[in-house]
Amino acid sequence: MGYVTKVFPEGQLLSSVMAIAKEMASYDRMCLKETKQLANHILDEDLDGAMKVQEWLFRTYIGSEDNHQRIDALQAKLAAARAAKK
User: Fold this and answer.
1) Alpha-carbon distance 42 to 47, whole Å?
2) Domain total for the chain?
3) What is the extent of the structural domain holding 52?
4) Is 43 within 8 Å of 1 (Cβ atoms)?
5) Does residue 52 lie in a domain region?
6) Cα separations (Å) of 19 from 45, 51, 68?
7) Which of 32, 47, 66, 77 has CB 3.0 to 4.6 Å from 28, enough for a Cys bridge?
8) If DSSP states are collapsed to H, E and C, what string results for the chain?
9) Does some domain include residue 13?
10) 82 or 42: whose pLDDT is higher?
11) Exposed / middle / buried, residue 67 (Cβ in 10 Å: 0-12, 13-18, 19+)
């Protein structure tokens, strides 16, 4: 099962999805696998149970070295974009 998070203009679906897939390929594989499994699992949970699962996922993976590197890269990119606007 998947979630719809974006609708693409006609004729741009394949190229857009491939760009997303390329970006996701750089993510921690175990984190992606756990996220997918937990997303499917929480569909059967009530809100409280789903929130507990999401909290565990966040606490488990936010501290990973890969995640810190991605956060640092994103912050640098955002800072550069802000500086370019000035």
Assistant:
1) 9
2) 1
3) 28-85
4) yes
5) yes
6) 32, 30, 22
7) 66
8) CCCCCCCCCCCCHHHHHHHHHHHHHCCCHHHHHHHHHHHHHHCCCCHHHHHHHHHHHHHHHCCCHHHHHHHHHHHHHHHHHHHHHC
9) no
10) 82
11) middle
